[in-house]
Each structure stands twice: as structure tokens, then as C-alpha cells.
Specification:
The chain has 424 residues and is mainly alpha-helical. The chain has a domain of 248 residues: Collagenase (Catalytic Domain) (3-Layer(aba) Sandwich). Helix content is 55%, strand content 3%. The protein is built from 16 helices and three strands. Strands 1-3-2 form a three-stranded mixed beta sheet, with helices on one face. A hairpin with a 4-residue loop joins strand 2 and strand 3. Helix 7 crosses helix 12, helix 12 packs across helix 15 and helix 13 runs antiparallel to helix 15. The longest helix has 25 residues. The chain starts with a helix and ends in an 18-residue tail after the last helix. The site of zinc ion has 4 residues, from helix 10 and helix 12.
């Protein structure tokens, strides 16, 4: 949108003054991600008095700062957001909360220390090799798909070749030298760090995108596919047990971090990834036929996961969790294919009584071990696009004939789904 278009959908705001106040350089056009939000905000502003709006803003400010304020605020904040909403019984220890604030505010400074202590060169190399194996499994998989049209397959393979892999931590660390940290001023530290972060983003305006920048800090136990840069990102935090263990055999690691790699990769090719081309520009590269066939198969997942019930009376939302469930199912299959390929027909001996195939599935089960209270399960079922751990495990495994064979499950048994769902 041009600045003018933004003014026309949200005239309540003195935008030039706002942009100037934020220290924004001149803007020619801007990306308004949620125009509806701004249109509706207009009526909110009209309906409420200035005093009411000030009260709301004051409330927002205090509630955001509450975890950083003295104990009275911290405890009151926890009583609602922790106890009532998630069922927590006690506040997390002070040191854990402190580490989390440092990760939020100075993540790449903390990350440097974290990487020094936890992340070796061997981990990076083994992970990179695994990523390449899984990319080549996806290449084979796309090739064999029955539902994707040949023209679209060609596009998919071009996109796959263009993906870049970012493992562990950034090549260049972020500079925090402008942030003043004071020992006795926690809210001030947070505010100054936030200001510096906003400035850093403002300085990007009008400049080329830096694809080497990371959207997660190194200690984060998570991973992501970035459609606008066509890259997959695995912070050092997820390259630790139980996701990745240097001391364990490939089978377990493929079933764990390998499946996560596969999961992220499929995001580049699903109903979200189809909208972005190999360079990350908005261009839908699917035909309408592909979309129809994809949806037909995806619908099977909507029904499957929509029948899972984490808490009595609450079912998962099959549509909300569809994208993630599809990626989980594809991810573990790709990991399985890659492991089979890497063994080159020579299957290693069983370890602790389990074959490599079985150990791959155990690896998948172990990464999703979790413990949640009923309140949390209820909240997550309504808001989280990821299914709870036990359904991520059983949902995927019961769809896989490879699992059935590995553990000699028979038709009609709980872990054999009829019909089995499959997209990738
Ligand atoms: Zn995902």
C-alpha cells in the first residue's frame, strides 16, 4: 500500500506524526499485513472516549511490564496468566525467568555463550549431512507423488534446489553495544533493548533483505521454514537431546531431528509454501488441479485429528492443526526414506533389542514427551496450530505402513488407521 492508502483505511491516526515519532525514514510503500484490523480499529477509536483509550493503553503497558516489576505485580500477573489460564501451580524459578528475559532482549549475546558451551563442529556437520539426505528424500518423494501435476513437480524441484540451510547460529553476531544494561533496572533494560531492536528494524527500510539474519535465537528449541527467503533454520537449541544426540545412532537422530527437518522442508511445498517462488516472491506455482488434489488428501487429516480429544469434551480443531499435521506426517516419512537410503541396503544390528526402523519411530515418540495440565490442554486445543505431543506421535505413526511393518501391528489394532491419510 502507499502511505495514502493506509491513511484512507485508518484515518483516525495521524500517520505522518506517528512515523516521524518512531524515527522511520521516508516510506514509499508499506506492507499492511492485516488491513481488516486497521479498519475495525477505526470504529473502536470512534466508540470510545480519549480517557477510556488512555486507560486501555496504561493497562496494556502495565500488564506487559508486570513480569519485570516487584513481586506484588509478578504474583498477581501469574495468578491470572499462569494459574487460571494454564493451571500452573507455581511460578518458574527466578533464574529460568531471568535467562528467558536475556534470551528475549539480548538473544545473540546469550547465544554466543550458549553455542561455545553446547554446540560442537561435529554436531553441525552431522546435521548438515542429514539435512542433505532429507532434501534428496523429498526430491524422490515429489518425483513419485501421484497427485502433483508434472509442471508443478518441475517447479517444486527448482524450489527445492534453491533452499538454503541455516544450522546452529548466525555467521555474523548482532551488535548490542548501543544497549545500556543497568544492574538495578530490569524494566529499563528491557525497554532499552526493545528500543534498540525497533531501531534495528527501522534501519532496514529501503535496504536489501539480509537472508543471513535469524528469526530465532541460538538457544531456542524450535525450527522454522521462512517462505519469503526460502530457507530452513535450525537453532543450536534444537540440536540437543532429545532432538539430536551425538552419542546415538543415526536411526534415533533421523526419527527425531531428521523428522523435524523433513517437517520444515514440506512447509515450502504445502498450501502455504505454494504461494512463494524459489526466491521468496509471492507467486503461486500450483495449478488449480494440484490444489484440488492436495485438499482432497488434506481433508483426511482434518477428520483424523479432529477426532482426537486431549481433555474430556474437547476435540482438536482439525482445520487449525492441518498444516502442522501434514508437515509432521510428511516429515517422518522423509526421515524414514533418508535413513533407508543412508543404510544402502545394509541394515545395522539391533541395539537394546530394537531394529533401526523401530529406533527411528522411538526417536519420534521421544521428542514429543510432554506433561500438561488440563487447563493448558484446553487452551492449546483452541489456539495452537500444533497438535499435542501424544497426537503428533500416534497420529503420524498410525498412518504409516512402515510403522505397522516395523512393529508387526495387525489390521484392526489401535495403531493401524483405516484409511491411512497421506499427502507427502
Ligand atoms: Zn511447522
Amino acid at each position: 500500500m502507499s502511505e495514502h492508502e493506509l491513511f484512507s483505511i485508518a484515518p483516525f491516526m495521524d500517520w505522518p506524526k506517528y512515523f516521524a515519532g518512531m524515527g522511520t525514514p521516508g516510506i514509499e510503500s508499506l506492507n499492511v499485513e492485516s488491513p481488516t484490523f486497521f479498519r475495525r480499529l477505526e470504529s473502536t477509536f470512534v466508540q470510545h472516549s480519549l480517557e477510556e483509550l488512555k486507560t486501555y493503553m496504561r493497562w496494556q503497558f502495565v500488564t506487559n511490564q508486570a513480569p519485570l516489576l516487584p513481586a506484588g505485580f509478578v504474583n498477581e500477573n501469574f495468578a491470572f496468566y499462569g494459574q487460571i489460564l494454564t493451571g500452573s501451580k507455581e511460578l518458574r524459578p527466578r533464574w529460568k525467568r531471568c535467562v528467558e528475559y536475556v534470551d528475549n532482549d539480548l538473544g545473540e549475546a546469550l547465544g554466543q555463550k550458549y553455542v561455545d558451551i553446547t554446540f560442537g563442529a561435529e554436531g553441525k556437520q552431522r546435521t548438515l549431512n542429514m539435512v542433505r539426505e532429507i532434501e534428496s528424500a523429498l526430491r524422490q518423494d515429489v518425483d513419485k507423488l501421484t497427485w502433483m501435476t508434472p509442471v508443478t513437480k518441475k517447479e517444486a524441484l527448482i524450489k527445492l534446489d534453491a533452499i538454503t540451510n541455516k544450522i546452529g547460529y548466525p555467521d555474523k553476531w548482532r551488535d548490542y553495544s548501543g544497549v545500556i544494561i543497568k544492574r538495578d533496572d530490569l524494566p529499563g533494560n528491557d525497554q532499552r533493548a526493545t528500543e534498540a531492536e525497533v531501531r534495528r528494524h527501522m534501519e532496514k527500510i529501503g535496504k536489501p533483505v539480509d537472508p543471513k539474519e535469524w528469526g530465532m535465537t541460538p538457544p531456542t528449541v524450535n525450527a522454522y521454514y521462512n517462505p519469503v527467503e526460502n530457507n530452513i533454520n535450525f537453532p543450536a537449541g534444537i540440536l540437543q537431546p532429545p532432538f539430536y544426540d551425538n552419542k546415538l545412532d543415526d536411526a534415533v537422530n533421523y526419527g527425531a531431528i531428521g523428522a523435524v527437518v523433513g517437517h520444515e522442508l514440506t512447509h515450502g511445498f504445502d498450501d502455504e509454501g505454494r504461494q512463494f517462488d524459489p526466491t521468496g516472491n509471492l507467486r503461486d506455482w500450483w495449478t488449480s488441479e494440484d490444489a484440488k488434489e492436495f485438499e482432497k488428501r488434506a481433508d483426511c487429516f482434518v477428520k483424523e485429528y479432529g477426532n482426537f480429544s486431549p481433555v474430556a469434551g474437547v476435540n482438536l480443531n482439525g482445520k487449525l492443526t492441518l498444516g502442522e499435521n501434514t508437515a509432521d506426517n510428511g516429515g517422518l516419512r522423509l526421515a524414514f526414506m533418508a535413513l533407508m537410503d543412508s543404510m544402502k541396503g545394509k541394515e545395522p544390528k539391533a541395539i537394546d533389542g530394537f531394529t533401526p526402523r523401530q529406533r527411528l519411530f522411538l526417536g519420534w515418540g521421544q521428542i514429543w514427551c510432554e506433561n500438561a495440565r488440563e487447563e493448558m490442554e484446553r487452551l492449546m486445543a483452541q489456539t495452537n496450530p500444533h497438535s499435542p505431543g501424544r497426537f503428533r506421535v500416534n497420529g503420524v505413526l498410525s498412518n504409516m505402513p512402515e510403522f505397522r511393518e516395523a512393529f508387526a501391528c495387525k489390521q484392526g489394532q489401535p495403531m493401524v488407521r483405516e484409511p491411512a491419510c497421506r499427502v507427502w
